[in-house]
Design a protein that fits this description.
Layout: H1 2-33
Amino acid sequence: MLSLYILIWPVISAVVLFIIVRAFFKDMAEAKREDHDII
């Protein structure tokens, strides 16, 4: 059971990172389209 827990963490981290990066690029594209800075 512990080995499954250790093996699943990289998958969870990768999914969270993918969601964050996807949201960032979506916001960046929207800001570019509206001619605004992202910050």
